[in-house]
């Protein structure tokens, strides 16, 4: 009840073959297969490009770790303090 039996599927397949013909169905199957193959290739190319972009540097900036960044901030703070002292004198 409510399920499709093997005989009903077979009848539907015969009707589809009679309506479209085997050549047209073969062409549709080939087109569908090549579309799926192209989609898989595009997805794998995108994954490869994403990995490459993560490994490469962003723009022209140098990559620094946290300790280098903190030491750079401290040196700039010291430089600004020295400039303020010079201005006051």
From TrEMBL:
Pfam families, alphabetized:
TatA_B_E (PF02416)
Q: Name one GO cellular component term.
A: TAT protein transport complex
Q: Which topology term describes how it sits in the membrane?
A: Single-pass membrane protein
Q: Where is this region: Disordered?
A: 43-89
Keyword Electron transport part of the UniProt annotation: no
- Biased region (Basic and acidic residues) positions are 43-71, 79-89
Chief localization class?
membrane
Q: Which residues form a coiled coil?
A: none
**In Gene Ontology terms, what is a biological process of this protein?**
intracellular protein transmembrane transport
Top-level division of the source organism's lineage: Bacteria
Q: Example GO molecular function term?
A: protein transmembrane transporter activity
UniProt similarity note = Belongs to the TatA/E family.
The UniProt entry, under NCBIfam families, shows:
PRK01614.1 (NF002448), PRK03625.1 (NF002960), PRK04598.1 (NF003396), tatAE (TIGR01411)
User: Could you tell me what this protein is called?
Assistant: Sec-independent protein translocase protein TatA
- Origin species, per record, is Vibrio comitans NBRC 102076
